[in-house]
Amino acid sequence: MENLTIDTLWTLARAQGLEPSDEDLAAVLPLVQAGRAMMESLAAIPLGEIEPTSQYRIL
Amino acid sequence: MSDLVWKSMTELARLIASKAASPVEVVQAHLDRIAALDGKLKCYITVLGDSALEAAKAAEAAVMSGNGVGPLHGVPVGLKDLYCTKGVKTTGGSKILADWVPSEDATVVSRLTAAGAIVLGKLNMHEFAYGPEGLNPHYGTPWNPWDAATHRICGGSSSGSGAAVAAGLCPGALGSDTGGSIRIPASLCGITGIKPTYGRVSRAGVLPLAWSLDHVGPMCRTAMDCALMLGAMAGYDPRDPTTSVLPAPDYLAALTGQVKGLRIGVLRAFYLESTDPAARALVEAAVKTLEGLGASAQDVNLELPKHAAGASYAVISPEAYAYHEGWIKTRPLDYGADVRQRLLVGAFVSGADYLKGQRVRALIRDEVDRALGKLDVLVCATTPMPAPAVGQNEVAIGAETQPVRPNLIRFTRPFNLTGHPAASVPCGFTSAGLPVGLQIIGRPFDEATVLRAADAYQRATDWHTRRPPAAA
Q1: Are B319 and B211 in contact (CB under 8 A)?
Q2: Residue of A nearest to B200 (CA)
Q3: Known catalytic residue: B374?
Q4: Per residue in B197-242, pLDDT tens?
Q5: In a 3-state reduction of DSSP, which class is residue B382?
Q6: Do residues B426 and B463 touch, judged by C-beta distance below 8 A?
Q7: How far apart are the first and last CA of chain B?
Q8: Chain A partners of B324 at a C-beta cutoff of 8 Å?
């Protein structure tokens, strides 16, 4: 996966109408990187036919 | 100080119903205590002294005239400040909603007051419930009452609720729990709290953090009080489409004091094996206590909760961002820096990642369900360590140094993903005098068994009766 940078985050943020400060982006970058690393670890789980969970237990 | 502030809710209800205590006297005792201690503890954002006393006088008149009274008649409660209260500001612990006054009560607030409860005020919290420490830059960070000298976190996000109940500033409170926000402060503040099954209690009129993970529940000093409050709150609500039509049982009647034959699964891998040794010893001792009461215990190793952090990241981040998107674009600087930055993270999670998180979540739920097919409850520590100091970012857990924030929610958030009911009860104190919580997880909609186990444990121990030094 391509490395994220503050510039990348800035472009993604602007595309959504956000204008975060450089300070915020510097703080957010490691959080997003950590999140992406966690998501990559989920890729190893065999999900098969599992559907997204529903918490709505209709009883 | 009046001893009334240390009475349980069930005891206060009994004293009031039998005319042995006046609701006015009870409410005034708590208001006096708030006035004396809350300057330091910072539990309350709004104190409703006048309306509470007015309600107490009406409650007293009802008792004296022999009118029927509800199960919480005249008993004070505090509300985490994300529960909508008609005509009373509801800030969410934020600057954004500092002056917002809802036009109606949350369903659970209506149900508690219909049962006779008197609202003392609105309690402090991590801003918009988005943090497990319970910090607040706008209203001050609540002080954990178990350390009078060092400003320690109360745990969050229901930090004001945890500290207020522990310090006798209210006998019970409402918390909310998206990743552990009832159980973490219950553990760190030495009180009892339960996150009911998702769908058991209405979220209508409660400011959301993440719709599919948010749970509403009570925080009290005893499991019996949690049963009393939960009984008044639980059940289907047409205002919340996620509530179940399954009838809520009589939780107080379920507290038989008996756990003979109860099958306990002790969560080892990922849980106790990653717990501070002192806290782990207290949890092991609690299991021995339950075994001594007739329960049986066996080790359980779940494989999938190690993926809860990833699944939770994928679900909570975009749900929280979706709710806050408008404000984060128009009023970003009105958020505290930590919450603003965490909310921004949600803008960078894709739809595919969100659904992958929801699919992994289904697997985790199924694994917990399978474990509970052969067992009645699962137990582990609520948090891997006791309360750190405010501003402390790392903590020693055994021989390792670990970051505080992810470890605070490590043991609790899997059960937000799965929706199972889970309680925290105090099970001892470290050598530094800090409380440790035992987490008890039950089958879906079987809060009664969780509370029965917690109550039986509290009948055999006295941890829940200790009073914190900062509340002396």
Answers
A1: yes
A2: A57
A3: no
A4: 999 999 999 999 999 999 999 999 999 999 999 999 999 999 999 9
A5: coil
A6: yes
A7: 9
A8: none
Q: Which residues of chain A are at the B interface, by a Cβ-Cβ cutoff of 8 Å? A: 9, 12-13, 16-20, 24, 27-28, 31-32, 35, 38-39, 41-42, 45, 47, 50-53, 55-59
B399: tokens are 């021989």
ipTM over 0.85 threshold: yes
- Those residues whose C-beta lies under 8 Å from the C-beta of residue A11, and which sit 6 or more positions away, are none
The two three-digit tokens of residue A49, written as one number: 């036919």
The β-bridge relationship of strands B44-47 and B394-397 is: unpaired
For residue B82, what pLDDT is reported?
98
Choosing from B7, B42, B80, B122, the catalytic residue is B80
- Scanning the structure block, which residue is given the tokens 């509800």? B70
Extract the tokens encoding A48.
């098969």
User: Tokens 């969050």 map to which residue?
Assistant: B156
Give the pLDDT confidence of B97-110 residue by residue, as tens digits. 999 999 999 999 99
Strands (E), B2-104: 44-47, 76-80
3-class SS of residue B428:
strand
- Cα–Cα dist B114/B125, whole Å: 25
β B422-429/B118-123 pair status:
unpaired
CB pairs under 8 A between A and B: 99
Q: How far apart are CA B29 and CA B32, in angstroms?
A: 5
Whole-number Å distance between alpha carbons of A16 and B344: 11
For residues B436 and B187, is the Cβ–Cβ distance under 8 A? Answer: yes
Chain A residue at shortest CA distance from B313: A35
One of B161, B181, B187, B317 is an active-site residue; which one?
B181
Q: Please, which pLDDT band fits residue B1 given cuts at 50, 70 and 90?
A: low
d(CA B361, CA B315): 9
d(CA B299, CA B152): 33
Say if residues B216 and B203 touch (Cβ distance below 8 Å): yes
| Residue in B206, B242, B222, B224 with CA at minimum distance from that of residue B111 | B206
User: What CA–CA distance (Å, rounded) separates B408 from B382?
Assistant: 9
